[in-house]
Specification:
Layout (H helix, E strand, L loop, with lengths): L1 H60 L12 H9 L35 H16 L9 H12 L33 H5 L1
Helix pairs in contact: 3-4
């Protein structure tokens, strides 16, 4: 009888010890994950603040932007990042000039949103002309047709204000039934429409 009681107690103690081990391991892993999350959050914040500091310094020192400046030089950025060592991990920072990209929502002037932003229109026209000339399946498309349709989708009125034959106000989208947004594009799905 004593042997059975001893075996039962040992079995219960082993089960309790295994459960405590499992819970302890879970707490340790959770604490490590929290520590890593906080460390990574601080590292990311440091990178953002370094980028801000570089851009503010650039703004105070020059009146123009160029890819020849320090904020665009990976070697200069690496030098600055080496001054802020972390025990675990490293920061990689890249600053890109967003103004060099085609800004879809800048095709019209805001807040009125009726007139073309001519510099963006020219950029769109050059890009689409090049794209169409390099792709035989797009030969039937005209750059102005695409530009005018995008403009009609994002301009602030559904009023045939601009585009004439190549526009795309709400009446164009009635099959299947839908309406032109007359607002900025936020998703690629809207651009595809």
């Amino acid at each position: 009888m004593a042997l059975l009681v001893t075996l039962t107690i040992i079995t219960v103690l082993i089960a309790v010890a295994l459960e405590m081990n499992r819970k302890t391991r879970s707490v340790v892993f959770s604490a490590a994950a929290s520590r890593d999350r906080i460390t990574l959050s601080h590292m990311a914040s440091s990178g953002i603040e370094i980028a801000k500091a570089m851009l503010i310094t650039d703004k105070n020192n020059s009146n123009h932007d160029s890819l020849q400046e320090e904020w665009a030089d990976p070697e200069k950025i690496s030098e600055i990042l080496q001054d802020i060592p972390f025990e675990d991990g490293t920061i990689k920072l890249t600053i890109t000039d967003e103004l060099g990209k085609i800004q879809i929502n800048s095709l019209v002037t805001y807040p009125e949103g009726h007139a073309f932003n001519e510099s963006q229109r020219d950029m769109w026209h050059r890009f689409l002309t090049l794209l169409i000339s390099q792709n035989e399946s797009l030969e039937d498309l005209e750059p102005d047709m695409i530009i005018n349709s995008v403009k009609d989708w994002i301009d602030s009125g559904d009023d045939e204000a601009i585009t004439g034959l190549n526009g795309a106000e709400s009446d164009y989208y009635q099959e299947p039934p839908m309406f032109a947004e007359t607002a900025r594009l936020f998703t690629l799905a809207n651009l595809r429409l």
